[in-house]
Amino acid sequence: MRGLMMDFPLTLTAIFNRAERLFSKVEIVSRRPDGSLVRQTFGEFHRRTRRLAHALRNAGIQRGERVATLMWNHSAQLEAYFGIPLAGAVLHTLNLRLHPNEIAFIAKHADDQLLIVDDVLLPIYEKFKDKVNFKRVIVVPFCGNPLPAGLENYEDFIASASGDIEPPQMEENEAAAMCFTSGTTGNPKGVLYSHRSLVLHSLAEAMVDGCGIGHHSAVLQVTPMFHANGWGLPYTAIMTGAKLVLPGPMVDSESILDLIEQEAITVSCGVPTVWLGVIAALEKYPERWKPRRTVQVISGGSAPPESLIRALDRYGFHLRHLWGMTETTPVATLGGLKSDMRDSSEDEKYRARSKQGWPAPFVELRVMTESGVAPWDGKAYGELEVRGPWVASSYYEAPETRNRWAEDGWFKTGDIATIDADGYLRILDRTKDMIKSGGEWISSVDLENALMGHPAVREAAVIGLPHPKWQERPLAVVVLKPGSEANTGDLTRFLAAKFAKWQLPDEIVFADEIPRTSVGKFLKAKLRDQYADWKWEQK
Amino acid sequence: MRGLMMDFPLTLTAIFNRAERLFSKVEIVSRRPDGSLVRQTFGEFHRRTRRLAHALRNAGIQRGERVATLMWNHSAQLEAYFGIPLAGAVLHTLNLRLHPNEIAFIAKHADDQLLIVDDVLLPIYEKFKDKVNFKRVIVVPFCGNPLPAGLENYEDFIASASGDIEPPQMEENEAAAMCFTSGTTGNPKGVLYSHRSLVLHSLAEAMVDGCGIGHHSAVLQVTPMFHANGWGLPYTAIMTGAKLVLPGPMVDSESILDLIEQEAITVSCGVPTVWLGVIAALEKYPERWKPRRTVQVISGGSAPPESLIRALDRYGFHLRHLWGMTETTPVATLGGLKSDMRDSSEDEKYRARSKQGWPAPFVELRVMTESGVAPWDGKAYGELEVRGPWVASSYYEAPETRNRWAEDGWFKTGDIATIDADGYLRILDRTKDMIKSGGEWISSVDLENALMGHPAVREAAVIGLPHPKWQERPLAVVVLKPGSEANTGDLTRFLAAKFAKWQLPDEIVFADEIPRTSVGKFLKAKLRDQYADWKWEQK
Questions:
Q1: How far apart are CA B114 and CA B101, in angstroms?
Q2: CB–CB of A208 and B207 under 8 A?
Q3: Which of A249, A355, B131, B438 has its CA 20 to 30 A from that of B304?
Q4: Within its chain, how far is the Cα of A41 from the centroid?
Q5: The CATH number of A434-530 is which of 3.40.50.920, 1.10.3730.10, 3.30.300.30, 2.40.420.20?
Q6: How many Cβ contacts (< 8 angstroms) between chains A and B?
């Protein structure tokens, strides 16, 4: 028997309309490329976004068509987040850190009709413009330079429309946004988010146990909005009427700390490497920043070293580690302690907080081994699989990737993981990063996070390299903190307290930096290339 | 274009399964009718609930059939909340405070197949059993007395099944629960909640800006679970893994305060009259209770007097006033201050907190006047209408009530309201309680709440009575605090500071108590009956 409840679709339009009526005085603060801050209210944001939607309709954009953005985090990107779906179209955020050829492939594969691009990013556009065929290119003007021929000014574009049209009535399962994963193998793959998935994801993030974002929060959006819906926080902030601070291109540690202090930030987000940098800055200038309130730091993308969580606590930053992927909108787990751990030791609490959290409501996790679904015992490991209302059911027009979904529909993440009896997920490695040594597996992530707990180590990455006897053996690449010293023997002894002898890296090399992916994670594929000719010393 | 996200239904089953895996150690505390406390874990709750579902299937209960409960708030009622929907059936909570004839009408109208009833409530059952035809009656045993012939023991019933069956795969729009509104006119009307509506409502309540319930909360469920889904808090507590404390039949002020202190409660709920009683107890025994943490009090059902909110604050209780109805699952608005009011005066903040809040995400409100939708100006008043994903689209098998929905599908609440520029709803009166005096309207609620701000007044209700010249004029019925004194002149002078002369009650009468509805609200229909023969003195 059907319930007798209204058929009310869960759409971004509903979020947008409500915020317009309720939160018109809340601030949105954007840093421009020249470093200046621009303040607007939700009221202005809504008026401009309605105009953008109207102008897109006037430009002939049809329901379901893709509109691309190539932008930093600022108010115009936020206008695109809502204005494009409001027009009935699909927001497609291009990742400006990818190779221009890759951007071109993605834009063509998505069949993007129109591009909105920051003028300061036109040099990137120039590199791929001959490989794509946008009908129109709209440029957000920051620096005041005249635009190249054929390109249009974003301010003129939105000024051309009144915004006074009724948005189309969307079904909740219609597409609203699209992001591509920047996989290291094969072509990039598109994930197509529905209104429903983004709405439910926002509700989960607005939970006390989610990202803790409410109407009285002030959110600093460090995570790029071109990456995995900016982890969903822009939608959640607009839904709850939280103040939103967008740092533009300036996401260096000092700029982040300046904004946190000046704008009384309560929630921020970013990959662990961002917060490693923030800690380095706080240690370098111990008197410079005095945040007024505890800052909740949403971190994901890779596992934060326990030492980072401890260091952040000392400075009034509380890190919540969530796990997710572009394919999961992205937040799939909630971090934090279970209530029965209230009386646990500090060490136990930090250990739990370093894990990858427990499944969010309506997200289901399982670990698949060769003999079936693994028990939740914290030991049995295998490939992590996930399902839920904000998990991708397939990639966009990529039938060759069908094998990424199990026969019963679960998504295969490509991560090797365990789940313990409390429900905590622990990612041991990406399938391809796990080191196979003499028939046993070694977790590169565990070694890295232990190394980053050494006081002299700033960053560490561990890769498996071919070995004539053991198949693979671990090599650690370490970046020391400025002014610090440590040698291979020091670090190996440090690790030996936590790992079995056969798990220790056979060699530790010191480097100036570790290559990064477009979203700030360690780029191990490149490291493996760098050390492709490595010869192990005979031991 | 459809998004490419998984088709994952939003069901209570998903909430139940996740809580089973994640929160097995969390406590559920129930007070039995003899006053003793029983503790169980989510683990035990889940095992028993699976058995209940299994036993219902064995009993032949079919998908979509209604199973009734007649119970106080305790763990078996919670088992019914999840076990009945888990069996694919519909939980129908009977309101034990209604007249037995009315209960019989409701159970027959709903076609309830089976009843689960507390043994201490069998005297009520005896009064209507001849008018209903349940196939089986299952009795929750508390007092140890032998059961009347033909009735079955709940413990035996659930022990007869292993619980080891797979629940049916429900669609999210299938019915999960049913409540009847105890209207003062016409027959009671059934509201049929879908899994989807209960799930979305739970997500809204788990928001920072909702009821603020998270995994670390301890919730005291004062609101009867037989009334409007217990305001949804039982579902939200299980979803978030919050500790849940169920007070059984003992909801007097002292028992409530004992539980709040002993169980370290952080969130509770109840109509304003409950909290008026709590304040009276705190004033009577100022040293007796020392709550350890601030208690968030979710209040609804009627407007709390501002004086109540102030008094609760002094004792460490923070009242959040939410508005809703049985037809809205029930929470339709969020309470609390807007962020731009942070620097407002204390008086302004209390005034805002006394209003009925602003619409929850995906709930839409409008005020209809004779000339169409009213502006949000805090002045234009008319009937409040509402729509959203957890708002009823019709009553259960009651085609004669079709006029309660506007032609475009909005639900007509029967409340007279304004909405101000900040989005705050203010309910002036039920349509039928508004006092029409000489062509102008007088709000009975405003007068009542002002009277309850007088230090000598414990409770006050205002009704309109026929008047030969003015059509209707207000009469106030006042209950004084024990040991306090005030006369008509005192109270009229007190009101005169806030109201125009023509709005003041023509008469104030003093009484020992004010009649209540089954859910603790003032029963004005009965008051009007009592004073039906009232003769105004000529003035």
A1: 18
A2: yes
A3: B438
A4: 26
A5: 3.30.300.30
A6: 215
Contact B2 A358 (CB under 8 A): no
pLDDT average, residue stretch B57-73: 98
> Facing residues of A427 across strands?
A417
Give every CB contact of residue A76 below 8 A, 6+ residues apart in sequence: A116, A118, A140, A154
Task: Please answer whether residues B384 and A43 qualify as being in contact, where contact means their C-beta atoms are separated by less than 8 angstroms.
Answer: no
CB-CB: which of A18, A26, A207 is closest to B206?
A207
Q: How far is B204 from chain A, CA to nearest CA, in Å?
A: 7
- Among B371, B364, B372, smallest CA distance to B409 is for B364
CB contact under 8 Å between B243 and A339, yes or no, is yes
CA distances from A77 to A71, B70, B453 (A): 6, 54, 50
- CA–CA distance, B232 with A291 (Å, rounded to integer): 37
Chain B CB within 8 Å of residue A232 CB: no
A500: part of which helix (H) or strand (E)? none
Question: What whole-number distance in Å separates Cα of residue B329 and Cα of residue B320?
Answer: 18
DSSP bridge pairs for B75: none
Structure tokens at B507: 């008469």
Of the candidates B478, B412, B484, B472, the one whose C-alpha atom is nearest the C-alpha of residue B449 is B478
Can you give the pLDDT at residue B105? 96
Q: Over 70: is that where the pLDDT of A539 sits? A: no
State mean pLDDT over B193-199: 98
pTM: 0.91
Whether residue B125 is predicted with pLDDT greater than 90 in this model: the reply is yes
> What tens digit of pLDDT does each residue of A145-190 get?
899 999 999 999 999 999 998 999 999 999 999 999 976 567 899 9
C-alpha dist (Å) from residue A378 to A24, A265, A367, A381, A420: 48, 36, 11, 8, 4
Q: Which residues pair with B91 in a beta bridge?
A: B67, B177
Task: Determine how many CB atoms are found less than 10 A away from the CB of residue B353.
Answer: 22
Q: Three-state SS for B40?
A: strand
Residue A209 has its nearest CB partner, among B64, B215, B422, at: B215
Report helix angle B488-496 to B444-451, nearest 10.
110
The tens digit of pLDDT for each residue in A356-380 reads: 999 999 999 999 998 999 999 999 9
Q: What are phi and psi of B156, to 5 degrees?
A: -65, -40
Q: Is B398 on the interface with A (CB under 8 A)?
A: no
CB B103 within 8 A of CB B115: no
CA-to-CA distance for A182 and A204, rounded, in angstroms?
A: 25
